[in-house]
Sequence to fold (168 residues):
Amino acid sequence: MKFLLSFESSPGYSDTKQIVLHKENLFPKLQTIESKYKTEHFPPKDIRKLSKMLLAQHTPSYPNLREKYSITTLDFFKGVTCPACFALPMLRERSRWTCPQCNHFSTDAHLFTLHDFAILIKCNPTISEIQDFLQLPSRYITYRLLAKSPYPRIDSKRYQIVSQEKLY
Fold:
C-alpha cells in the first residue's frame, strides 16, 4: 500500500519548490553539495594543532549551583533516598538500608546520596557532616560506611566524595 502525499503552497509563497525536497531528489542533491564543498579549508596538520591548543587552554566550569539558585543547606531534605521509590529517608538496619515506604533493601544506597551531597553542598565534608546528612545514629557507622566506599580520605577528618571531573 502506497501513500501519496501532495501539498500546495500559498499563492504568495513561491520558494516552496526550492526549500522542500522530495525523496527522489535527495541523493542527487547530496551529490551536488558534496561536489560543491569538496575542498578542505584547513589541512589536517593545522586541525591537529588547533585541537591541541583548545584542549590545553580548556578550563572546565564548575558552577556553584547553590549560589546560582540561592539555595541554603536548610532547603535540602536530609537522609538517604530510596533507589526504588525515591522516598526519604531510608533507615539503616542490620548493615543495610531499608525503605519504610516500599520495603526495598540496599547496601549501597548511601553512595547516590553522597554523590548528590558532593554536587550540591560540599565535595570534601567531614565525617560529622556526612553523619548529619545521612541521618546516621553514630559516628562509628558513618566511619565504617566511608571506609568501605570508593571515596578516599584526604586528611584525618575529611573525605573527598567525588573528584571535580566526575561531578558534571
Observations:
- Residues 111 and 149 are 8 Å apart (CA to CA).
- Strands lie at 91-93, 96-98, 105-106.
- Residues 1-5, 163-168 have pLDDT under 50 and may be disordered.
